[in-house]
Amino acid sequence: MGTIAQTHLGSLVALVVIGAGVLHACWNAIAKHVEDRLIAFALIGVVLTAGGGATLALTGLPSRACLAFAIVSTVLRLVYDAALMNCYRLGSFNQVYPIARGTSPLVVALGAYLFVGERLAGLELCGVTILAGGLMSLALSSGRIARADLPAVGAAILTGLTIASYSLVDGIGVRHAHNPLAYAALLFVLEGPVFPVVALVRRPPAAWATPRVLGTGLTAGALTFLAYGAVLWAQSRAPLAEVAALRETSVITAALIGTFVLRERFGARRVASAVLVAAGILLISR
């Protein structure tokens, strides 16, 4: 199995992961506010397939040792895509996104400890815990969750568990691949065609044809390609739990999008939650 180049997040890796989180929040905001999400995910799949195929042509296939991980990850990521679409059908962006992303870091930390033997030092473990708490508190910043919100919250938690699952599988798989770019490209080629095929069956060609739909979906696809490719690169070079936790700072970007783009209120509770997130980042990437 490939080895980790660093036993802790370096500055470059931390910056790449934070940047990936920004890109992730942006494509999720697009996916939430596209009227036909099946078409949006189908266009994302087109970009992933094309980009993955082009990358594989340059890198060649990764090591055979990673193939089983790539297949399992593809299944988990398709479940994640379906769960994410359900989240955005049931709840608001600023509610379900933080819950989904906040569920993942501690689950990844536990899984990395059990399956990879990664043990976080005291400060890093405190950082992961504080960061996860800050992310979850962002979801609750408007007060307690009402009964009517429970379906959306349940879908968001399921989404978070799938995020943790594929993050662990990919974190191990990319280390078996010996080439992060080739592993990422293989994932994209396996996952990418599924939603385009489903959309071709369930939607008329005219649903794809408008410039606005094409532009929005293809933009989201490009952001997805860059964001997850960057995360896989980081997972090959730093502890999985730290990468997973730092990646979820994407909720700060999501909150800013909600405030300045969607004109949603950013109150005192959200400011306090953002401070917790920042404290977690400092402890993880010190």
Low-confidence stretches: 1-5
Amino- and carboxy-terminal Cα gap: 28 Å
Number of strands: 0
Q: How much strand? A: under 5%
Helix segment tally: 12
Order of helix and strand elements from N to C terminus: HHHHHHHHHHHH
Percent of residues in helical segments?
Answer: over 70%
Q: What would the average pLDDT be, to the nearest integer?
A: 86
Radius of gyration: 18 Å
Structural class: mainly alpha
Report on this structure.
The chain has 286 residues and is mainly alpha-helical. It has helices spanning 11-33, 37-59, 67-90, 93-115, 122-139, 150-177, 180-191, 194-202, 211-235, 240-247, 250-261, 268-284. The longest helix has 28 residues, at 150-177. It is built from twelve helices and no strands. The radius of gyration is 18 Å and the shape is globular. Residues 1-5 have low confidence and may be disordered. The protein has one domain (11-284).
